[in-house]
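Deliverable D2.4 — example input (structure tokens):
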């Protein structure tokens, strides 16, 4: 991460965390169990990539990042809800998340499910509230639509469904061409869709012009897929302590880019996606520096 990008993340992560602390119910407010669980998972760590993308999307289109903090918090809540549910015994059955016991291990499965539900629904409350604060209620449909698509069956949920259906090596039964189609469907859904929605939510709140939205959409699609490919690579080459997890996709016979293409070709594809994504930023001039550096960081990170 370049010094400028590091400063950008440090500044906005601090503001996002402060805003999350403000918006989330306090632990002593009834029902205490779900509020404790919400705070436990939200403040368990994480890069705050999606909130920063909301902010960067607004700023590149001319709106101060401070004005989109509720939506930035909302995207982190949606991301966290998805992780809580992913970790459940019925899904990935993980004991650790970011080096800490997962929500269902601390609070039980029922509270973990309800915690995810609470974060997801509260997120849309914040998005609607923010849309009215920034401009008018007329913005609400645009922002809600892009986030709902990214989080729902057309995006993150849909990708997770395909991932589950192809678990335990079931993807081996398909010919290579079909395996690649399935792989892209999983990655574009599970990861890239919400990354794209985060950036576009910020752009919409800034009343971005259609051509700006289209360029940012193509940029986000590229870095979103590159991000997941980088995750696939780190699952093999990364330090499990830094990743805060145990086990691996390879051991679980999951469908990943290295499983299909091998490590070196996967790295090449990630670099190509980033290069094409950065090209979409050319028309924004100097305002695009943060997003350009972020694209490079996505495939250079260690966790």
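Example output (designed residues):
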């Amino acid at each position: 991460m370049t010094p400028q990008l590091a400063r950008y993340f440090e500044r906005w992560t601090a503001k996002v965390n402060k805003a999350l602390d403000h918006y989330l119910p306090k632990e002593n407010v009834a029902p205490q169990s779900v509020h404790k669980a919400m705070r436990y998972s939200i403040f368990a760590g994480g890069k705050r990539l999606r909130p920063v993308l909301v902010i960067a999307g607004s700023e590149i289109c001319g709106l101060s990042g401070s004005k989109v903090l509720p939506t930035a918090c909302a995207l982190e809540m949606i991301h966290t809800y998805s992780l809580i549910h992913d970790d459940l015994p019925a899904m990935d059955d993980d004991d650790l998340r970011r080096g800490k016991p997962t929500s269902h291990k601390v609070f039980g499965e029922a509270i973990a499910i309800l915690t995810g539900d609470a974060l997801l629904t509260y997120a849309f409350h914040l998005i609607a509230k923010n849309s009215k604060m920034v401009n008018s209620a007329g913005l609400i449909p645009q922002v809600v639509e892009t986030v709902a698509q990214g989080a729902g069956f057309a995006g993150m949920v849909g990708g997770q469904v395909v991932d589950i259906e192809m678990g335990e090596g079931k993807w081996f039964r398909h010919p290579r061409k079909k395996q690649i189609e399935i792989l892209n469907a999983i990655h574009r859904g599970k990861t890239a869709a919400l990354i794209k929605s985060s950036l576009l939510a910020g752009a919409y709140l800034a009343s971005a012009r259609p051509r700006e939205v289209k360029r940012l959409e193509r940029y986000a699609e590229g870095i979103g897929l590159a991000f997941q490919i980088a995750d696939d690579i780190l699952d093999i080459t990364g330090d499990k302590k830094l990743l805060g997890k145990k086990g691996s996709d390879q051991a679980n016979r999951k469908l990943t880019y290295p499983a299909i293409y091998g490590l070196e070709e996967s790295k090449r594809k990630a670099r190509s996606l980033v290069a094409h994504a950065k090209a979409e930023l050319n028309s924004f001039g100097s305002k695009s520096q943060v997003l350009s550096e972020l694209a490079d960081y996505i495939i250079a990170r260690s966790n």
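The first strand starts at residue 96 and ends at 97.
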